[in-house]
Design brief:
about 300 residues; mainly beta; Jelly Rolls; 9-stranded antiparallel β-sheet; 5-stranded mixed β-sheet; 22 strands
Length: about 300
């Protein structure tokens, strides 16, 4: 009698998961009367849109990064799905919410490490993160090289503001953020924008537009491995042209995308151990802060694999 009742409860539980993606085979019970259910699993290697019958999607980006698109949350209120990255490469899996819908307030969610996964549930207007796994539970050692000191004028030495291209004096020593410093000469000019074009850690095209601020340094948030052009636009000079410098900041680019927008990791600069701040969640914006480099001390950090 107890076993029969457990089977009935198990069937009811499975039905509550939405029959379209809870597998139609009956639930089974263990010897103690517990219950379990089976759910459809699909492995994908290229761009994919979640289907009605899908529950678990195993995504392998060995060939290239790609996107897993979610259906409209309103189509299946309270639906639960799991998406997991199974390959060990650096290519990202981007989970994209339907139209302008969001995943815990963001339009996308990125899986960047092997075995990283997220469980989502539709709330009829968007998707909520029920749980997440950060990936393999061992630390990965990343030696990032020996960063130079922060140099506000290394890319462009002091130059008059202009509408047009600036001459690039030096490339970044490693992937790191850029900066623009403004100095007023007389009356502050009408400040425009400065556009940096180059590549990210993996060599993909990267652009960032920085709006200078009077008499101060403005730091970018993206890590450039190379710079191909620095161009001013929208400047209007006063009686005497103001000046700017362009340089490289304290955010050191990482070879992997981080799972969270902000965080902390254990790191060393030569023999000095410290907890260091990080940013994420794309490859271009995944950085660790290091302002004490001198070009000789090696920066090493430790991440969840």
């Amino acid at each position: 009698m107890k076993t029969a009742l457990s089977i009935i409860i198990g069937l009811a539980f499975c039905a509550s998961l939405t029959p379209a993606y809870a597998q139609k085979s009956p639930n089974v019970t263990d010897s103690k009367g517990g219950m379990s259910y089976r759910a459809n699993t699909r492995t994908v290697t290229t761009a994919y849109t979640l289907q009605e019958e899908d529950h678990t999607v195993l995504a392998s980006a060995t060939g290239a990064a790609f996107t897993v698109s979610l259906p409209a949350a309103s189509a299946k209120a309270f639906r639960v799905c799991v998406i997991k990255k199974i390959d060990s490469g650096s290519n990202e899996i981007t989970i994209d919410a339907f139209s302008s819908q969001t995943i815990d307030g963001a339009t996308t969610y990125v899986l960047s490490r092997q075995y990283q996964s997220v469980m989502l549930q539709s709330n009829a207007t968007g998707w909520s993160v029920l749980s997440r796994e950060s990936g393999a539970g061992v630390l990965r050692k990343l030696s990032l090289g020996a960063p130079r000191a922060v140099e506000a004028a290394r890319a462009v030495a002091s130059a008059n503001m202009k509408v047009g291209a600036y001459t690039i004096a030096n490339q970044p020593d490693m992937a790191r953020n850029v900066s623009v410093t403004h100095t007023a000469v007389s009356t502050v000019d009408t400040l425009g924008t400065v556009t940096f074009v180059g590549t990210d850690y993996n060599g993909a095209a990267l652009t960032e537009i920085i709006t200078p601020s009077s008499g101060t340094v403005v730091n970018g948030t993206k890590a450039f491995k190379t710079i191909t052009s620095i161009t001013g636009a929208g400047w209007v000079a006063g009686s005497t042209a103001d000046t700017i410098t362009a340089g490289y900041g304290s955010l050191i680019g990482l070879p992997v995308a981080l799972p969270d927008a902000t965080g902390k990791v254990l790191g060393t600069l030569d023999t000095t151990v410290a907890v260091k701040a990080t940013t994420g969640t794309t490859l271009a914006t995944s950085t660790v802060t290091e302002a004490s480099g001198d070009g000789s001390k090696v920066l090493t950090i430790y991440l969840d694999k």
